[in-house]
Amino acid sequence: MLGSLFFYSVIGITILFILLPILVILLYSFVGSLSGNLLESFTFEYYREVFDGGFDPLILSLQLAIATTVLDVVIGVPAAYTLDRYDIPFADRLRDITILPMAIPGIVLGIAIVRTWGVPKFGVDLSGTVLLLLIAHVIFTVPFMIQTTTSALQSIDYQALEETAQNLGASWSQCFIHVLLPNIYNGILSGAILTFALSMGEFNITLFVYNPTDKTLPIEMFGGFTTSAVGQASALSVVFVAIIIVSLWLMQYLGEQDLPKVANV
Amino acid sequence: MSEIHIQNLTKRYGSTKAVDSVSLTIPDGTIFGLVGPSGCGKSTLLRMIAGFEQPTVGDVRLDGASILGVSPQERDIGLVFQSIALFNNMSVIDNVSFGPRMRGESEDDYLDRARDILAMLDIEDLENRDPRNLSGGQQQRVALGRALAIEPEILLLDEPMTGLDAKLKRRLQKEMVELFAELDITAIHVTHDQEEAMMMCDQIAVLNQGSIEQVGTPTQLYESPTNQFVADFIGTSNLLSATATGDSLDFGYAQVPHTHAEKGDVTVIIRPEHIEAGDGSLRAEITNQFYLGEKVRTYGQLPDDSEIIFDESQSSVQPGDEVSLSIDPELAQVHPKR
Fold this sequence. Notes:
- The complex is a heterodimer.
- Chain A is mainly α.
- Chain A has helices spanning 2-31, 45-52, 56-85, 91-103, 106-117, 130-154, 158-167, 172-201, 204-209, 217-226, 230-258; strands spanning 118-119, 124-125.
- Chain A has 2 domains: 1-43; 55-230 and 237-258, MetI-like fold.
- In chain A, strands 1-2 form a two-stranded antiparallel sheet.
- In chain A, strand 1 (118-119) and strand 2 form a beta hairpin.
- The longest helix of chain A is centred in the N-terminal third of the chain and has 30 residues, at 2-31.
- Chain A is globular and about 75 Å long.
- Chain B has 2 domains: 4-217, 3-Layer(aba) Sandwich (Rossmann fold), CATH 3.40.50; 236-336, CATH 2.40.50.140.
- Chain B has 9 helices and 19 strands.
- In chain B, a hairpin with a 3-residue loop joins strand 11 (238-244) and strand 12 (248-250).
- Chains A and B meet through helix 7 and helix 8 of A and strand 6 and helix 3 of B.
């Protein structure tokens, strides 16, 4: 009894800690400032401003997050598989490298990416392009994709599954599509949800890489909060959080729909 | 015809020889057992036959033609893994029809075939079930059915009954023997369970440290083991040290008349059921006794502190007793000590 009370308190406090700042932002989005009578300053004006201001940053962020997630799946799943399946020399060190972007501060990665891909002297100049944003987001998020896929692989005896499929006459691609992918599908799905959310919210690296005409949503919000348009920026944040939640639910829903149907009697 | 010839097969990993110059002939239609302790190389041998490992030296021939250059997909060798490895993303019937489906057979054909196999294995009512929700025995049947669906020339079984309870194991073993006879299939059955091998197999190869110790029928292995390892591994044996003089065996504490060719230090191998309590020259103190239903197994200590095991249909002694034991010299085997 006392034990369950403790655990309920812990989860309650944790949820509150996560929700509290979001609730504060929600409040700001309706009142703009905490000075004066809150009831009197209550307004939908900030939301109107957000909708009047257009959805370019939101659309760019969504496009970027979708492209990032697709690329992460295309790169991350084979990478995780290769590192786990084959006897590659220094496979462990290589795996360490794939998680480096999680550990390097965003500010360092941001500057490094700009320096790497913006050297006109050598004919490489992606500075300010959306492509550079995409590269940055993939570098930052692909480690999470590799991690979740690797855990999914390691949780099943996929080598026995693969060999069984081959033994039954399946080609390598048949085996990959009909046996391997469906069995690690949940890992890939959670990796995709994670990378989508990370890309949507990415700020640190993006700050160094973006072009003022192509602002992502977090950059746009940062502008709002630093230029005293707090109410409007708060309203934008609330819209952002709502979109993230809806997107995650949608991805989870679509993912479950795709699961092969097996009757459970 | 599906006869397998394994010729001088060797598999080296670095400096370790997992399989060392193994040569075997597995005749058409037999159930052939590969037994031995863990790490004896039996699974590696099986993986080379299935095509998942390439031998360092040697050849695997199916009906006279080498299959080393043939990919696992093309070998027509069915395989059931120890881990069963059912495809959990598919229903039972999709598992069983997987092989024919991947080989491009028409839906009518592969579904008919899969249903026939499910009926043969007595699991037709599981057709649409999720393999994860099946019992161990049912999963075992599905895995077997999936391997049989490609109508393989040879069926390889890699300890597929590990983890099943003893009673279910015995039932499945009997069913599989009957099924394989009916299908007239050649099977290679890898197991560390010698009882399972004796029950299921027409012929058995005993492996130890990558090499074959003996090949023979269960009767040959049990009644005439050619060395101590086989005597010890197949069934229960007493291995007693003695000095052979030509007309007797001198155990130090006792002498037993025995005519044989060996002289010098020997190991006398005698099965527990070939020792009788009562009138004999081996004195032993009874240390322990186990009632096993059809027999009573008794452990005793000989004067040189070595252990002796004997079986009786009804117990005539009790722990703590001093008894004299007689061995039937005709049934004792004498091997030079190694």
